[in-house]
Amino acid sequence: MDQRQKTFERSVRERPHMYLGNDGVIGLFAGLITDYIELYNTSNIFFTITILGANIFSFNIQLKERLVMPKETSRVSANAIFFVQVLKVISKKLEVQNGVMNQTEFNFNLDSDINLDLTADYQKLCEEISLLAMLNTQIEIFVKDLRLNYTSQNYYNFPQGIFYWFDRLNNEASGKPRFKVTFEGMAQGFHYRIGLAYRTDWYPSPVILSFANNITTTRGGDLVDGVLSGLMSASRQFLKDNGSTTFNIKRKKLYNGLILVCAVKGKDLTYNGSFKEILVSKEVKAQAKEIVKKLITDLFWQNKDVAESFLFRFDKQQIPSDIY
Known about the structure:
By secondary structure, this protein is an alpha+beta fold. It is 37% helix and 27% strand.
């Protein structure tokens, strides 16, 4: 074992939370899923997570199609996957079985001497797994807990992806959504899913959910900024083309009544913040702006009553207050 590997193993054992988060084995399962999606460059995978007993776990990966690995990853084995390396370090017992039909299974017990949560809260695990299923529309994940007298099990697959959240938020929102626009498609190597809506009823507080790859960007970042910039740009251009001069488009007012659910996938995305949860990408910001600007421009010109109803809040003669 070289010195670099020794240093890595010592770091994982001494600071496991830095690698897995505060939820221990839940973070391990989430990391294994995202690593295999990246390794095979597809989410067309069936995962099975089984909690067999106290600190007894099984993780099964089954490819749903026969893949030809890209040349740059053809030499990469499961041993090179980051969270597999972490699993090897924190396991007291680990068995790896390579079965037929593109299947791999890990059976393991974690080392109780490591300062790590081994309880595997089933509800927390399901919450994390459902999030991954929504962000990766092709994957199927089956979760089973056999620790009690009865079996708890859940199956997750969301072909509609984040639009499940978007539709649910619109259905549950206080105030009727005045307009809704959605987009899904590619732009210069990035895949976007964007759902944008506005509600009436006393300008309720905004609801914003944003994601980059499999990371919840809880503080937004350039994807959210790009979407809002596109909405502002389309609104200003519409007003200019219609000769309106009493309107003042402000971002503060733009938030009121907003429902935004958006996600981007692509390579080489970077993040800022203490927990690396703020997306930083000039390309994503510019592309999201152009996508939303076109969506809103088309909507306004095709439905001028919708445009007037939405832009009313920015008319200084009608609503001079900055509250709304």
